[in-house]
Amino acid sequence: MQITFKVYRKDPEGNGKPGRSEYTVDLSDDATVMDGLLKIRDELDGTLAFRASCLRGYCGECTMRISGKSTFACTAKVSAFTKKGPEIALDPIRNIPVIKDLVFDWDAFLWNKIKAVKPWLEPREGPANEEHRLPDAVMKDLRQVMSCYYCGLCDEGCTVLPVDFDFLGPAALTKAYRVAFDPRDRDGKERLRIAEQPKGVWDCVHCFEASEHCPRGIAPTERIVALRDKAFQMGISHEKVARHHQSFAASVKESGWVDEGRLAVESEGLTNIKGLMKLLPTAAKALVRGKAPLPYVHSKRPGADRIKKIFEKGERERK
Amino acid sequence: MKYAFYPGCVSRGGCPELYPSAVKVAQKLEVELEELKDVGCTGAGVLPQYLSDPINARTFAKAEGLGLPIMTICSTCQGVMAQANYRLKSDPAYREKINREYLAEEGLEYRGTTEVKHLLWILFEDYGLDRLKSLIRRPLKGLKVSPFYGCFLRRPPEAITPTKELSRRKNYLDELIEILGADLVDISGKGKCCGFPILTASEENSLAMVAKHTGESKEKGADCMVTPCPLCHLNLDGNQPRAQAVRGEKIDLPIIHLPQFVGLALGFDPEEMQLKRHIVSTRVVESRVEMLA
Amino acid sequence: MQEFDVLVIGGGASGLRAAIAAKRAGAAVALVTKVHPLRTNTGVAQGGLNAPFGKEDSSERFAEDTLLAGDGLSEPELVRILTQGAAEEAVWLERMGVPFNRDGEGRLDRRRFGANSQPRTCYADDRTGHIVLQVLHEQFLRAEIPSFEEWYVTSLAVEDGTCLGVIGLGMRSGKLEGFAARAVILATGGFTRLYLPSTASLGTTGDGLSLALSAGGRLRDMEMVQFHPTVVPKNPGLLITEAVLGEGAELVDANGGTIAGSKAVPREKLCGSIMDTIENGGGSVFLDLRPIGKEKLSSRFPQTCELLRTVAGLDAAKDPIAIQPAAHRPMGGIEINGQGETALAGLFAVGECASSGVHGAGRLAGNTLTEAVVFGRRVGEAAARYAASAPKRSFPAPKLSDEERRLGALTSKNSASDSLGKIHGELGRLMNEKVGLARNQTGLKEAQDRLQHLKERHQRLRVGDTSRIYNYQLTAYLELGSMLSLAEVVVLAAQARTESRGAHRRTDFPERNDENWRRHISVSLVDGGPKLQHKPVGIPG
Fold this sequence. Notes:
Chain A has helices at residues 33-44, 106-116, 136-145, 153-157, 169-180, 188-191, 209-213, 220-233, 239-255, 260-268, 273-288, 304-318, and strands spanning 2-9, 19-26, 63-66, 69-72, 87-91, 98-100, 103-104.
């Protein structure tokens, strides 16, 4: 079948402006998009730059946007994209700087961020001829996380990265989980220091976009939440977030529900005058508009004593 | 039709206009509500699961005792409860453990039969669109509206859109805007996060998200944005003035709660829906609605 | 110019292990790799890595199995290095964080794999390579080793028989640069892309072998190319790990009859049985995964199920899968000794690009990853030792400008009707047909003649892309050049070996001939042309 590929182009040695080239190639019915790309580069335009490695869905190197859907060129059948006509648009994935054509900056997008989470075990001292004895269930969880093929699709779907490219992103934070949840690390707590890093777990909005975008079902969002919960339990946190969480928990524990006024004030910190002043204009406007009910009271809900019991029991068991 | 009503904290706290407008709309629709009064906060994704799952199991058990499904009016409450319910329903051993350790003492047991539904889902899945259409007294003609769902009303799939048919949930708000006679102004971030969860940790990014979503909507000519999530409302409305400063230009986009929006189409006046309580002036919406009389 | 004690070329398992070991031994190390380490061909390995554990097994038994698979051409002393070092390296990997599958007692579980007489293969589901690679990369990052990723090495800098570094092309910068090093370790992977279809990644083009050959190194056992028995013959060739056979899967013919001798035999024999069935009127051969059971299939072979579905559109739990053998992994490579030293001073080689003497004429399933880590460590340490004592010599700077001119002369805007892909396509088919599972003199001679034409066509071609940054046409041109020169060596060695042994099956010489052929064929360039030498088995360790 004759397929026309409309391919994003950018020449870093030319004017650097994005453009688009069209190529029509003849492909077999079960051809993949990668077959098309290799044929184009071989027969029509040797200057077309794109990455490829394993050719069969193992490695994530050829992630790109195929007629708007981000996936792997090597496993994407051409026929799945030509139902409306024999035309396929190829673009780099979003939220990522492009270097040349479909070659984008993996370093800035992924590899450097993975390095930043210090993703390695500090192995425990031990006999060189004996493995750790561990239940397979623990290993299975790690194997699932390590089925990640660093394709970048979770990062592409991320809500935070478009407003802050420095955010570590779900792929790197999932890598952090892999290390922090490995019982073989010499000092599990040290690994959780990742949770103190700026642009890390506390900047995640846990919107589940990453989980939805992950083609391997690794659930990066849940991994980040787990990382955060574990860090928090170990007393490792972002200062303001810790206050916020403590205030939130204390409010629910005492009254059964959330006291937002208390939350705002306590999150900023009672001695943080500057932070508290910042709240004033919104608070004042809210008062004027009757948004905050007056007089300001936060009363216990019925059943609050039951909630408190659940808290006490849960907290006891965690210890 | 009757539901166990779970109003959530914010509908009487930070967004006190939400609770009464939801109740009024339910009355108009002849949906009977029995408010769950002695139940706790869902945890809102802030409390760890080991605390929030028992608290939510308790809520589900109470509703189960009444023989009623739960109605929520908050994407966050809905999402957190749906995720907890998914875990409790799909893992009987886990459910039993929580029953045994947390609920038995109070004489409660959750058998795993409670449905939790947001008002938006109820309109489509239980109430019926024909019946809703028949009650429209003021089609919102000419009003240009952007949808904003709140993350937890769209994801994660196993809890929110478990079947192919239910994946339509991702589009309910878009559909509703048109059903109520308004013009849909689609925006790329409608299913993304509003930024509320990171307001504490990363205010700058949070405000940037507010600016991005409201700014795009405004640029595309929307008069307002409608959201089924009061936490999104808190950020998109309450922090819009500060987000404007980040963006460096005025946005002034009114953010309307879902029940208010439905209420206006059912014939309630803006005053009854307490639009005046919002931070960003809703004058544009009010005058449009008054013109439609 | 960058200067290092030890420079490792290639970011797969062998290269990473060597780099980590050399660094630990105190050397200043750097890695140069043409794709990011996590994109290398190690990631496609599935089944696992062999290591003898438990009372039932021993390094001796492991050695016996390895020698048996090598069909008389493995070097016993070098095999012992592998089998004695395997358990320690497997434990090292475990302690560094590989989440190997466990048995009921929480110890490393071992699966039955290929012709191993024991359940000896440690594994991580069916992604062992992918996961081992990640852990090696983690430890590589921990060691803070400089890494030049997406750098293509175009030549070795050799003077007076000593390797003094390499010249590399930065894909991103478009710049050609020299890297001075006292020791260079080639860990560039195999050359299976000589064959189409095959099970290898796009970059498995034998670059390192070709660099070593043209710089004065020697290649050994090049006629021995292992085919993998169970490959879905869809382009480009989707491998199903042979481990499924150990877990209950069956090989059946078109009538559903079980293929005789399909369990626990060397791959060479298994491929032979499959081809016999296909050729003797059996039509197709199928791999029936259903006896494994649905649950075990999805828990132990998740990737296999996923790729069968996405790449081939098949449901492993429902239908038998049509398979046939495809080129998988060469046994031969750059001739090294037990320390990884080559014929050139300062040049080392390890992993799939090297002939360590372990695999002989047939490789035991599960030995590639084991070899990568055992020899990776060994060669890394040896290179560090060498570098510590080697006299300091300066990098031959003129070579850089020579190389600049050579590459410049390859590019030209002239359009041609011929193409790299067409030449490669013909090469791959030719190798499969004439230099594949079954060979004979007529076919090999024909292959030799046609190869000359392909080489001429390649030499006439020019690289049309004159840009510098991410010029993949230029690297593809160089890769094809490597493949063509190696193909010639494979064909010559296959012609010379007038017997059948291991992966080398001559229909005109069907018997194994120990009297004349318990020896290696070793190839070097003399006056620009390949010259063959024979060396009897019996290399000291």
